[in-house]
């Protein structure tokens, strides 16, 4: 099996295995469990070079489970560490916890444990990305726009907080469920965003992460208590954005912006599903940030051509989003919309409100957008200057190539 396929399996199954093994052996042994799952994939990388098993998923699950038991045997404490799990009066065999429905339940428990209020808010997100979706520290740092060392400290703090508070591996109920759901949705949103617009150097789109975020969001929607308008709205966002994934790159693996995408490549069944989710999402008088973002995405999809885009309506949605969630990235997008709508003075007003450093790893987007603004008002010198700044700061090679092409186009005009 190719290494990239093993990586895909790891991404897809490590969170499942860590979750269900944690349900078996307990949160206090989480670090041992994570190491065991990691060991299992290293073993798979080596043993599958010549021949892979008929059912790779089953092999990985069994191997991870056995690896944990082996570790406990070496510690000579297995009898105390393998609990007797009961449901009502009936004992559940450990093997039955590896059924699909039980794995889903274990993953929901892990998501809500990771988002427990006893954990620092920043630590929750890092911890959830690690345990639920198998992110590496490097990938978490990229998703959260921070340093790897910072992520390592957050993960360490989260594990210590879990031990100290002796947290239970369960799904909260009532008001506690709704409070913790906010953090859960934020984590799923981040996972999806890292897939849709990755910060990694070579890959701009990571469909496996988009798929993982959608799968976890669907897990929430399977539970009646979690079928809330904001959950439907988040899933609608994921559907709308995923529908455009096949159109974001051309056959030469070059990045295409919304203006140059082939709209016939958009996946309309996903758009229809997103619309169905939005119909459920708007059955409320209170709109979340996910509602506004979904409305913006839907408006882009509604336009038959780029020129048909209703920028006035999109700007109105963004203003509402900013009032609810004041972020520099929203201000930047409002500036971009005004550039598209030929409102240069209004665009300039929004640009003046932004400090590029506030965008951290995405600061290059400010300079790229400002370059578009200067190109629009025919100041090619400043446009090139800002494109050079964007190219200097961008990390993804596809985006860097995209910006260089924009620069070449301006130089030809000049």
Written description of the protein model:
With 414 residues, this protein is mostly helical. Among the domains are: 1-98, Rna Polymerase Sigma Factor, Chain: A (Orthogonal Bundle); 228-305, no CATH class. It has 19 helices and two strands. Strands 1-2 form a two-stranded antiparallel sheet. A hairpin with a 2-residue loop joins strand 1 (86-87) and strand 2. The radius of gyration is 23 Å and the shape is globular.
Number of continuous helical runs = 19
> Helix/strand/pairing class, anyone?
mainly alpha
Order of helices and strands: HHHHEEHHHHHHHHHHHHHHH
- Level of helix content? 55-70%
Distance between the termini: 51 Å
How much strand content do the residues show?
under 5%
Spatial order of strands in the largest sheet: 1-2
- Average residue-wise pLDDT: 87
Runs in which pLDDT lies below 50 for 5 or more consecutive residues are 84-92
* CATH-scheme architecture of the domain at 1-98: Orthogonal Bundle
Which secondary structure elements does this structure contain, and how are they paired or packed?
Blueprint: H1 3-25, H2 30-47, H3 56-74, H4 78-81, E1 86-87, E2 90-91, H5 100-114, H6 121-131, H7 137-143, H8 148-165, H9 174-196, H10 207-221, H11 229-242, H12 268-281, H13 289-302, H14 311-324, H15 328-340, H16 344-352, H17 363-376, H18 380-393, H19 397-413
Antiparallel strand pairs: 1-2
Offer a quick outline of the entry:
By secondary structure, the protein is an all-alpha fold. The chain contains 19 helices and two strands. The N and C termini lie far apart (51 Å).
């Amino acid at each position: 099996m190719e290494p990239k396929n093993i990586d895909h399996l790891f991404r897809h199954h490590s969170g499942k295995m860590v979750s269900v093994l944690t349900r078996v052996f307990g949160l206090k042994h989480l670090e041992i469990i994570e190491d065991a799952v990691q060991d299992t994939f290293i073993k798979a990388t080596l043993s599958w070079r010549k021949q892979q098993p008929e059912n790779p998923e089953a092999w990985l699950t069994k191997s991870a489970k056995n690896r944990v038991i082996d570790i406990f045997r070496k510690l000579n404490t297995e009898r105390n560490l393998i609990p007797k799990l009961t449901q009502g009066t009936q004992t559940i065999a450990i093997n039955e916890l590896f059924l699909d429905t039980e794995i889903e339940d274990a993953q929901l428990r892990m998501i809500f444990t990771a988002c427990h209020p006893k954990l620092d808010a920043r630590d929750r997100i890092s911890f959830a990305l690690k345990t639920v979706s198998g992110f590496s520290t490097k990938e978490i740092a990229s998703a959260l726009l921070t340093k790897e060392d910072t992520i390592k400290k957050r993960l360490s703090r989260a594990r210590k907080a879990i031990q100290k508070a002796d947290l239970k591996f369960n799904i909260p109920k009532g008001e506690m469920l709704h409070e913790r759901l906010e953090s859960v949705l934020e984590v799923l949103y981040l996972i999806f965003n890292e897939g849709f617009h990755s910060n990694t150097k070579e890959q701009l789109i990571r469909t496996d992460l988009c798929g993982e975020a959608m799968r976890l969001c669907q897990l929430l929607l399977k539970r009646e208590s979690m079928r809330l308008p904001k959950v439907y709205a988040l899933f609608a966002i994921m559907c709308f954005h995923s529908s455009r994934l096949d159109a974001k790159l051309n056959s030469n693996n070059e990045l295409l912006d919304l203006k140059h995408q082939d709209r016939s490549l958009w996946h309309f069944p996903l758009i229809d599903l997103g619309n169905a989710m939005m119909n459920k999402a708007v059955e409320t008088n209170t709109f979340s940030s996910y509602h506004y973002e979904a409305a913006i995405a839907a408006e882009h999809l509604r336009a038959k051509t780029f020129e048909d885009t209703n920028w006035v309506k999109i700007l109105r949605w963004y203003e509402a989003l900013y009032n609810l969630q004041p972020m520099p990235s929203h201000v930047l997008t409002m500036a971009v919309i005004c550039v598209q709508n030929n409102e240069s003075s209004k665009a300039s007003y929004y640009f003046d409100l932004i400090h590029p450093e506030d965008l951290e790893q995405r600061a290059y987007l400010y300079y790229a957008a400002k370059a578009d603004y200067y190109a629009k008002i025919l100041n090619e010198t400043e446009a090139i200057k800002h494109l050079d700044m964007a190219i200097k700061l961008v990390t993804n090679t596809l985006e860097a190539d995209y910006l260089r092409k924009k620069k070449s186009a301006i130089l030809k005009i000049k």
